[in-house]
Amino acid sequence: MNLLTARILIAAAFLTTLALAPGVSMAQVNQPMNEVSLGTAAAPGGAMVMGMGTNGIGTDAGSGGPEAVAFDGANIWVATQFSDKVTRLRASDGTISGTFSVGRRPVALLHAENCMWVANLLGGNVMKLNKSTGAVLGTFAVGTSPGGLAYDGANIWVANRESNSVMKLRASDGAKLGTFSVGKRPMGVIYSGGSIWVANNFSNSVTRLSTEGAVLATYPVGKGPFALASDGVNVWVTNYFGATLSRINRADGADLGTIRVGDGASGIIFDGTNLWVVNNGDRTLMKINPATGSIIATYATGIGPFGVAFDGARVWVPNFGSNSISVTPVN
User: Fold this and answer.
1) Alpha-carbon distance 100 to 31, whole Å?
2) Residue 172, domain member (yes or no)
3) Domain-embedded: residue 305
């Protein structure tokens, strides 16, 4: 069962009330974001004009299926999995500057070693792209249903959802350096504090690996861990089916508790000061103070947000069901 199907099946029964931390006023709830269409309606020259979006409104709703997003230092890349393409937007103004064909069902993106990496869920492979031209520089077979990517400074780590494993590829040439068992349905993966951290969506756990692939520890978290981020001290885990955010001390693995967020907690990123958490079911983006766990603000996105990226000044959220990407300044 894929994640979208699971959402539909549980939607009627899984209704979560958004819990606001003390000090969050109603004025901070559902602040609007600018929205950029990823559809075919383009201004002359291919420019996509940013306009004020509303919750659930987008162009060509239901097409494309944008889910993954990444920043390459100048551009935002979005994987539209149902079109088997990736789209590049200029971060400064949202102009679409290229659309490139990749493999079947691209669901994860990563910028590493001056290239873009794409995990193709149904293709069983990872592609390395020239970020200037979009040309495919290499295609590397991995496990079944690759859906998460991380970079440790020399190697690419791929989470294989149906193989219950992560694979290590040398970034320079894609050579396979090992395959390592983790929990059930590994989704998110990050490199932090000299370790590889993997969110096991069906095991309700996080596996910590050495860069040689040895399992260092397994930590219980909430229901349906989806994605991870680190603030340099702690590792944070979104729990998709639990509507919570788990905090793990990076140094010793101590469980530092959970924070109530929204329904379908999915993408997460740290901007150097605050955490940003996407709530797929609530169609919201939350800005969270990592020191206190308090919710600073809540923003309205489009339909079905999953991923999130930070470009140094703005946060970007692709909307799976709106065929659009929402954006807001971090301040």
Assistant:
1) 33
2) yes
3) yes
